[in-house]
Amino acid sequence: MKILVPVKRVIDYNVKPRVKPDGTGVDLSNVKMSMNPFDEIAVEEAIRLKEKGAATEIVAVSIGPAKAQETLRTALAMGADRAILIQTDDEVEPLAVAKLLKAVADEEQPGLVILGKQAIDDDSNQTGQMLAALMGRPQGTFASKVDVSGDSVSVTREVDGGLETVSLKTPAIITTDLRLNEPRYASLPNIMKAKSKPLTQKTPADYGVDTTPRLKTLKVAEPPKRQAGSKIADVDELITKLKNLGVVA
Amino acid sequence: MKTLVLADHDNKVLKDATLSVVTAAAKLGEVHVLVAGNNCELVADHAAKIAGVGLVLLAEDAAYEHELAENVAPLIVNLMSDRDAFLAPSTSTGKNVAPRVAALLDVMQISDILSVEGPDTFTRPIYAGNAIATVQSSDAKKVITVRGTAFEKAAREGGNAQVEKIGTTGDAGLSSFVSAELSKSERPELTSAKVIVSGGRALQNGENFHALIEPLADKLKAAVGASRAAVDAGYVPNDYQVGQTGKIVAPEVYIAIGISGAIQHLAGMKDSKTIIAINKDEDAPIFQVADIGLVGDLFKIVPELTEKLPG
Ligand SMILES: Cc1cc2nc3c(=O)[nH]c(=O)nc-3n(C[C@H](O)[C@H](O)[C@H](O)COP(=O)(O)OP(=O)(O)OC[C@H]3O[C@@H](n4cnc5c(N)ncnc54)[C@H](O)[C@@H]3O)c2cc1C
Ligand SMILES: Nc1ncnc2c1ncn2[C@@H]1O[C@H](COP(=O)(O)O)[C@@H](O)[C@H]1O
């Protein structure tokens, strides 16, 4: 079984994003970029399934600028077998990303597509669900446990009330949550090896997908700022504050 | 404009999250609520009483019992043939189902809206809430998820809508529900609690978390939350996580105990009315958003606080 893992190049999660003064977006010049953390978890899960013998090949795919090659090389260094870059400098919305991924899946025929549940830049949380819809396949979102057996996969999902387990027929789409695994670091020898793994370059036009955005961003603003309050001395003062807030009698 | 709201429920109780979505939908037009489930007539009756609801559609089928997206999405797509906007809460159910509907309708979803600025214009948080984007949709139909804390809850009483039973689309045969492990708690629900006590990595283990955070929460009649670090380390279950990728909360009072205040955590709680932080590091980022800060060792402060609180 082949596994397809879409990975997105995003602002590093340790960086505090700054809104551009002209209100057109977030300033990404000279900002550290990394693989979306949920996608690292997706790559790790695919590798573990391959190590267990449940998967035979892992294909990483990214839609983005030329620099997204670095993100794909990271996936290859972790253990993916080959990579596809669908290169574009335009911003591609989740719906168009899902259409491109569907086109890739039509060619590659993976048994599983494992995505992150959410990209930490657009915070959309929709690409995996959309891909599942377009492919007419089942979806196991927010996964904290994945078990493949035969032609089905059992997915334990993190839901608002706790955990829920569903069984999906493969091919299936999975999106990762934080507790699924702890991604490995690529070792130096593997980083070297990744340089010679195959990376195919494509464009959205190769797949005949129109990536024109449906949403127009009119403005990007900073949220209202909170002012730091005051420090208090001790528990007695805290109790007085809680009384003033009406939280305790 | 006609809207369709997906009711969030467990076949018995209509969840509060639905009420905020009704408020958002009412800003766009007439509100119809879909109750898809199994033996869930009671939920439909509740939905019909919500102020502002014009019609309740009740679709009962074993295939809808666990709100599997593969089964529910085709039903919604059918209902959208003569409606203009579909709105679901940003709950785990809403986030699972809505994008599937959007793709089937060939619509780009607008996730987690904070406000309705016009019939096609909305604000939404991006980059963990460090930026607020105003976006305009060019799609003929809108598919939207709604952040519960950003909209007032519609009144649970005051409406008198008709409940219409509708035909179902059955089982898509792609997925099945196996089991659920739901947290049971007598405490208020995290997303609708007035007071939240949250604990972080500093609690060191589950025993300390239970022994220190829970008695304090009980005295304050508060819900209990946690940082990702506390969840990852297994002190508490996943559904306690507050943050960018956990639950978004905005209580009257949020008490962060031994939580550093990473941007991902702040994203989930910085709209709380009053933030109280207890941390031994006076430079912890949480103090930059806290209204009231107490610097010190939580292992000393929390027991003393719980002890001295009345009740
Ligand atoms: C993709 C992604 C998504 C994430 N999503 C979330 C999310 O939704 N929610 C979330 O919370 N995090 C999230 N995180 C994690 C986040 O970046 C932080 O790692 C996490 O919030 C830290 O948790 P913490 O504050 O409990 O732990 P730490 O950062 O380790 O902080 C512990 C704090 O306790 C204080 N302390 C220690 N001992 C004591 C004591 N005895 N008394 C008082 N204070 C003490 C320390 O001074 C410190 O400030 C996410 C990260 C990523 C990469
Ligand atoms: N440009 C992209 N390239 C590759 N994968 C992507 C891209 N955008 C989104 N994804 C995948 O979809 C997931 C969810 O993203 P989103 O729906 O934007 O929150 C991510 O974690 C990735 O796995």
Automatic annotation (TrEMBL), chain A:
<dbReference type="InterPro" id="IPR033948">
    <property type="entry name" value="ETF_beta_N"/>
</dbReference>
<dbReference type="InterPro" id="IPR012255">
    <property type="entry name" value="ETF_b"/>
</dbReference>
<dbReference type="GO" id="GO:0046395">
    <property type="term" value="P:carboxylic acid catabolic process"/>
</dbReference>
<feature type="domain" description="Electron transfer flavoprotein alpha/beta-subunit N-terminal">
    <location>
        <begin position="23"/>
        <end position="211"/>
    </location>
</feature>
<dbReference type="InterPro" id="IPR014730">
    <property type="entry name" value="ETF_a/b_N"/>
</dbReference>
<dbReference type="GO" id="GO:0009055">
    <property type="term" value="F:electron transfer activity"/>
</dbReference>
<comment type="function">
    <text>The electron transfer flavoprotein serves as a specific electron acceptor for other dehydrogenases. It transfers the electrons to the main respiratory chain via ETF-ubiquinone oxidoreductase (ETF dehydrogenase).</text>
</comment>
<dbReference type="InterPro" id="IPR014729">
    <property type="entry name" value="Rossmann-like_a/b/a_fold"/>
</dbReference>
<keyword id="KW-0813">Transport</keyword>
<protein>
    <recommendedName>
        <fullName>Electron transfer flavoprotein subunit beta</fullName>
    </recommendedName>
</protein>
<dbReference type="InterPro" id="IPR000049">
    <property type="entry name" value="ET-Flavoprotein_bsu_CS"/>
</dbReference>
<keyword id="KW-0249">Electron transport</keyword>
<dbReference type="Pfam" id="PF01012">
    <property type="entry name" value="ETF"/>
</dbReference>
<comment type="similarity">
    <text>Belongs to the ETF beta-subunit/FixA family.</text>
</comment>
<comment type="subunit">
    <text>Heterodimer of an alpha and a beta subunit.</text>
</comment>
UniProtKB/TrEMBL annotation, chain B:
<keyword id="KW-0813">Transport</keyword>
<feature type="binding site">
    <location>
        <begin position="227"/>
        <end position="228"/>
    </location>
    <ligand>
        <name>FAD</name>
    </ligand>
</feature>
<dbReference type="InterPro" id="IPR014729">
    <property type="entry name" value="Rossmann-like_a/b/a_fold"/>
</dbReference>
<feature type="binding site">
    <location>
        <position position="279"/>
    </location>
    <ligand>
        <name>FAD</name>
    </ligand>
</feature>
<protein>
    <recommendedName>
        <fullName>Electron transfer flavoprotein subunit alpha</fullName>
    </recommendedName>
</protein>
<dbReference type="GO" id="GO:0009055">
    <property type="term" value="F:electron transfer activity"/>
</dbReference>
<feature type="binding site">
    <location>
        <begin position="258"/>
        <end position="265"/>
    </location>
    <ligand>
        <name>FAD</name>
    </ligand>
</feature>
<keyword id="KW-0285">Flavoprotein</keyword>
<dbReference type="GO" id="GO:0033539">
    <property type="term" value="P:fatty acid beta-oxidation using acyl-CoA dehydrogenase"/>
</dbReference>
<dbReference type="InterPro" id="IPR029035">
    <property type="entry name" value="DHS-like_NAD/FAD-binding_dom"/>
</dbReference>
<dbReference type="GO" id="GO:0050660">
    <property type="term" value="F:flavin adenine dinucleotide binding"/>
</dbReference>
<feature type="binding site">
    <location>
        <position position="201"/>
    </location>
    <ligand>
        <name>FAD</name>
    </ligand>
</feature>
<dbReference type="InterPro" id="IPR014731">
    <property type="entry name" value="ETF_asu_C"/>
</dbReference>
<dbReference type="InterPro" id="IPR014730">
    <property type="entry name" value="ETF_a/b_N"/>
</dbReference>
<comment type="similarity">
    <text>Belongs to the ETF alpha-subunit/FixB family.</text>
</comment>
<keyword id="KW-0249">Electron transport</keyword>
<dbReference type="InterPro" id="IPR033947">
    <property type="entry name" value="ETF_alpha_N"/>
</dbReference>
<comment type="subunit">
    <text>Heterodimer of an alpha and a beta subunit.</text>
</comment>
<feature type="binding site">
    <location>
        <begin position="241"/>
        <end position="245"/>
    </location>
    <ligand>
        <name>FAD</name>
    </ligand>
</feature>
<dbReference type="Pfam" id="PF00766">
    <property type="entry name" value="ETF_alpha"/>
</dbReference>
<dbReference type="Pfam" id="PF01012">
    <property type="entry name" value="ETF"/>
</dbReference>
<feature type="domain" description="Electron transfer flavoprotein alpha/beta-subunit N-terminal">
    <location>
        <begin position="3"/>
        <end position="181"/>
    </location>
</feature>
